[in-house]
């Protein structure tokens, strides 16, 4: 067939006219990214709003054809074909039943697939986030912890689970403050990528002091006396002072700490929390507490915006 | 024109032997077409100037098959629980007959598999074999590479020794530092908030069921695309791409599998 008139040739695609919407969308994204650094609340929101508005306009234009709206394209002009002989008028209505069966097969197949997939997907994804156990660890009587002395305490948070639940904490009794015993209890999980942090200093025999083996409801608890100059990680060299503040290396925050309570004269460890940094030492320490975050995750500064939602944790 | 003469005794015996061999093959071919498919796969045309570099893909496939086979055997003796994992691996190494060999093949074969994948990828890159129309096969290859790396990551935990445990701690926490969904991904990988029995079993399941299944499916797609699109010539090839090979006398290609056509050549 020859192209006729001034209309576009058949083999030329109908290119949609250029539009500014994508550019506006990109500007919105850029503004919200800049806002993340400058002022996440105000500028990011403005950027987000710009992106949403322009994104909507863009999507509306892009899908106009699909949604059956007229698109501004020059109309094609071509000679009218000779009337087709005896074309059945009801061509479109010729296979309504097969259409129905096709749709029913796809629809029912989808429903059945969904009914089978959803529970399986839930089973695959949900258990790590639901019903996580909260552990309490009895470290033994207060008298095991003379004031001002550091101990490396190793214990199993869940003796039934066995060695895999073994954890280590650095414990120091800070004495009585306002009639309440004060303890510094630092988790040995490195704030870089979770390796086991070690105490930098002599332990046990070198000090001429004996290890204490305590038996509590949590099974055997080993308390090793130590005089740490700080704590260091063997994996990638992260270093911390005795309050757990980062002094060198890759960690992004201070060491996590255990919250604790005194129950029947025993020191009982509860859940852990994250710490950005600590001012002061011992009982006078001002601890900047945060909800427990994974190793390597910032809890303060602009980078905290990368981790807006933490999975449930006890 | 060959002179017709009655076949000798030896020729008759040969024909009978051939019939015995070809009968089951013909039986299968008639009902499935599989023999023809295998023939098509093995005897398809490739450029005349390909070289040994183009065997790296097959080498990678072989390494994967070794991993799959040895892995299946190891799974018969390995126990994925915190209490038994390490001792079951000691048992495989020290007591099960040839266990040291099978475990060694699986352990060293893992590195061979990864190295071969990278060499194969380098060959494809340097030969420009990723270009039109083979882009999709490059993408499939990248997915295979990622899954191979995930196999390495999940398999590394299974011996459940200090190296395995702490390497997995670091690896999982690395995933956890990814923005936004990272902490959720880490908790999903761990199967909870701490590494424990659930981590070991889920790594085992991913390592020996999820990933190998996905890898096999993708290898199938990868090979299908290789066969459909053909092998690329090296960049220094003087032949134009897509040149058909000249038709050969059919007798040259006959013989490995007897033609099933009735009245075929003698």
Question: What can you tell me about this protein's structure?
Answer:
- The complex is a heterodimer of chains A (314) and B (266).
- By secondary structure, chain A is α+β, with helices and mostly antiparallel strands.
- Among the domains of chain A are: 21-62; 137-306, Rieske Iron-sulfur Protein.
- Helices cover 23% and strands 25% of the residues of chain A.
- Chain A has helices at 21-38, 42-62, 96-125, 204-207; strands at residues 137-141, 150-156, 166-177, 180-187, 198-199, 212-216, 219-226, 231-232, 239-240, 246-248, 257-263, 266-279, 286-290.
- In chain A, strands 4-3-2-7-6 form a five-stranded antiparallel β-sheet, with no helix packed on it. In chain A, strands 1, 11, 12 and 13 form a four-stranded antiparallel β-sheet that branches.
- The N and C termini of chain A lie far apart (74 Å).
- With 266 residues, chain B is mainly alpha-helical.
- Chain B has a domain at 49-230: Cytochrome Bc1 Complex, Chain C, CATH 1.20.810.
- Chain B has ten helices and no strands.
- Chain B has helices at 9-32, 34-42, 56-75, 85-94, 99-126, 135-157, 162-176, 182-190, 197-229, 250-253.
- In chain B, helix 3 packs antiparallel against helix 5.
- The radius of gyration of chain B is 25 Å and the shape is extended.
- In chain B, 24% of the residues are buried.
- Mean pLDDT of chain B is 90; it is low at 258-266.
- The A-B interface holds A 125, 127-129, 132, 157, 161-165, 193-196, 235, 293-297, 306-311, 313-314 and B 82-83, 166, 169-170, 172-174, 176-177, 179-180, 182-184, 186-188, 190-198.
